[in-house]
Write a structure and sequence with these properties.
With about 375 residues, the chain is α/β, with parallel strands linked by helices. About 40% of the residues lie in helices and about 20% in strands. It has two domains: about 190 residues, Rossmann fold (3-Layer(aba) Sandwich), CATH 3.40.50.2000; about 170 residues, Rossmann fold (3-Layer(aba) Sandwich), CATH 3.40.50. The protein contains 15 helices and 16 strands. An eight-stranded mixed sheet has the order 3-4-2-1-7-8-9-10, sandwiched between helices.
Length: about 375
């Protein structure tokens, strides 16, 4: 039965990536689900999760498939590849009023919905750069995109990548949401002296090696907190061992991340490419922390002039920017810059994003033929 025009909706939200692994798409799916629930809607979240057997229900989460690592876009995507995972996801989605597919072309969770689903579907595309696979699968991708009632991208960079596959089909550019209030209210993690934070998977495209080389050029050197883990961790730890000014934190939970962001003087995002947006930049701004990042399209769009941006892969330029940001700590100019950045971050709230999607959900549900309706 279709809900009334203003009543609560049942949304099936599909995330193709392992929820027990940190990642931008996972964070968006979880955050959006939380905002929708706070607004009174029911959300069934469907995703792979290596911490539970496939087919397990954990509250409103259906674990669909066991994730395996699949190389894509300079990273390793933890996705489910079994047909049973797609079938479970499609069955769960059939019970909802509307289906929200994150990264619809990622294998394989949403494929069952795309092939045989009858429930109205919204697709959000996050990927930017590395569109070779998109181009190769263009006819199939165009068909799949045509099955979506609404197509959204998180940034212009993501839209440009998607356009390589689907051509001129209509796409709306929205944004990635930020739980700004949570980061603004976080208790700062204690720090001794000037501190720079890195958050991300330790793989070449995230640029951690560039940051560590840049910090070596600073005198005096700041403390560096390094959150995350990845294939580069052992090599970089051997080259830059832990010490009084360097802490390898491993993967941190949401609470510690918020506190580290609030406690650091600078968040550094030295990625080399492949970034469709800059959620962590906005999270840092919300926490009152200065941002230094690579000058990438996705980061530029998110920062909107509130971060120091430098050429990607340039340790010398990064060192200069870090020194400038650290020198501003505690000064009136630095405080004014951080206050403006914090106000900017508030405009990207997850609740505001949820409202935008609910408008799309209601429009699709209202247009869906009612069961048993006669066609004149």
């Amino acid at each position: 039965m279709s809900p009334d025009a203003e009543g609560p909706l049942h949304v099936a939200m599909l995330c193709p990536y392992d929820l027990s692994s940190p990642g931008g798409v996972q964070g968006q799916a979880l955050g959006l689900a939380s905002s929708l629930r706070r607004a009174g809607h029911r959300v069934t979240l469907v995703a792979p999760d290596r911490s539970e057997p496939s087919g397990t229900w954990r509250g409103d989460l259906l674990v669909a498939g066991h994730p395996v690592g699949l190389r894509a876009n300079g990273s390793v995507a933890p996705v489910a590849l079994s047909p049973q995972a797609a079938r479970r996801a499609a069955e769960a989605a059939a019970e909802a009023d509307v289906v929200h597919l994150h990264e619809p072309f990622a294998p394989v969770l949403g494929y069952g919905c795309l092939v045989r689903g009858r429930t109205p579907m919204v697709g959000t595309f996050h990927r930017a750069g590395g569109g070779g696979l998109y181009r190769a699968l263009s006819p199939l991708a165009r068909w799949a995109a045509g099955r979506l009632g609404v197509r959204c991208c998180v940034s212009e960079a993501a839209r440009a990548t998607l356009a390589q596959a689907i051509g001129h089909l209509e796409v709306e550019v929205l944004f990635n949401g930020v739980e700004a209030e949570r980061f603004a209210a976080a208790e700062p993690w204690p720090a001794e002296g000037p501190t720079v934070l890195f958050v991300g998977r330790h793989e070449p495209r995230k640029g951690l090696a560039v940051l560590l080389e840049a910090v070596e050029q600073l005198d005096p050197a700041p403390t560096v907190w390094i959150a995350g883990r990845g294939p580069e961790t052992p090599t970089l730890q051997a080259r830059y061992p832990a010490g009084p000014r360097r802490a390898w934190l491993g993967v941190v939970d949401d609470e510690q991340l918020a506190r580290r962001l609030a406690g650091a003087d600078v968040l550094c995002a030295p990625s080399l490419g492949g970034e469709s947006f800059g959620v962590v930049l906005l999270e840092a701004m919300a926490a009152g922390t200065a941002v230094v990042a690579s000058d990438l399209e996705g980061y530029r769009a998110a920062a909107a002039g509130h971060a120091r941006l430098v050429p990607a892969g340039d340790p010398a330029a990064l060192a200069v920017a870090l020194a400038g940001a650290l020198a501003e700590v505690g000064t009136p100019a630095g405080q004014a810059r951080r206050s403006a950045a914090s106000a900017h971050a508030q405009g990207w709230s997850m609740d505001h994003l949820a409202e935008r999607y609910v408008g799309h959900y209601r429009r699709l549900v209202a247009a869906r033929p009612r069961p048993g309706a006669e066609v004149a």
